[in-house]
Amino acid sequence: MDVADKNVDALALLRGADALLEGHFLLSSGLHSGSYVQCAQLLQYPDRAEAVGRALAARAPVCDVVVSPAMGGLFLGHEVARALGKRHVFTERENGAMVLRRGFALGPRARCLVVEDVFTTGKSTREVFDVLRAAGAVVAGAVSLVFRGAGDLGFGVPTESLVRLALDTWEPAACPLCKQGLPLVKPGSRKQPTGA
Q1: Ramachandran class of 168: left when φ > 0, alpha when ψ lies in -120 to 50, beta otherwise
Q2: For residue range 153-178, what is the model confidence (pLDDT) as tens digits?
Q3: Rounded to 5°, angle at Cα 40 from 124 and 30
Q4: What CA–CA distance (Å, rounded) separates 165 from 55?
Q5: Residues near 62 by Cβ (< 8 Å), separated by ≥ 6?
Q6: Is the C or the N end of the chain the one with fewer CB within 10 Å?
Q7: Residue among 169, 80, 76 nearest 122 (CA)
Q8: Element (H or E) spanning 60, and its range?
Q9: CB-based burial of residue 103 (10 Å sphere; 0-12 exposed, 13-18 middle, 19+ buried)?
């Protein structure tokens, strides 16, 4: 792998794909935000998806298998796995819980790299960690295209993101956009529980 792969300008690619949205959004974490990163707008272009996948692979710790949560991390995880020459499996929700399905299995002590499109609170990433550890696997690290916050998510494993954006988020009761009466939009793939 070419070291130059680390230097892809992922933020420029996101902007060029109109993936940075402004408005009033309900995030999958349940938080509200005035900004949303719709990585699917970038990942719909195979050459751009390959470029960011290779850039993440260049930053990844040694692993045996790449794992990503459906839906958001699916395409990016596949590109990272391809760049690393590794197998890619994914977790998905079943009755609200993150699980491995479709006959996917992990060998004991398999070193897994978790690939996400966006880290916000890290909740879904931790759910994937739990699934992997319950299967006897080891979490080698986690990577994402975008980290929406500042500081450290406290994953306890090597963590990398290509783009860091300090985007404000609020609990629904404290959301200034709700107070302004702006309509709330849920742009992601995960359905929210009633009342969110």
Answers
A1: beta
A2: 889 999 999 998 888 889 999 999 99
A3: 35
A4: 18
A5: 111, 140
A6: N
A7: 169
A8: none
A9: exposed
What are the backbone dihedrals phi and psi of residue 133, each rounded to the nearest 5 degrees, phi first?
-65, -35
Whole-number Å distance between alpha carbons of 126 and 132: 10
| Burial bucket for residue 166 (CB in 10 Å: 0-12, 13-18, 19+) | exposed
Mean pLDDT of 18-36: 88
- Is the torsion defined by CA of 30, 128, 20, 154 positive or negative? positive
Alpha carbon 134 to its chain's center: 21
Distance from C-alpha of 26 to C-alpha of 148, rounded to nearest angstrom = 14
pLDDT tens profile 85-135: 999 999 999 998 988 989 888 988 999 999 999 898 888 899 999 999 999
CATH top-level class for 3-179? alpha beta
| Alpha-carbon distances of 84 from 28, 54, 66, 93, 134, rounded to whole Å | 29, 8, 9, 26, 25
- Secondary element (H or E) of residue 177: helix 176-179
> What DSSP letter does each residue of 63-127 carry, written as one string?
-SEEEEETTTTHHHHHHHHHHHT-EEEEEEEETTEEEE-TT----TT-EEEEEEEEESSSHHHHH
Residue 87 has phi, psi (to 5 degrees) of -75, 150
Structure tokens at 148: 């929406």
State the Rg of the chain over Cα. 17
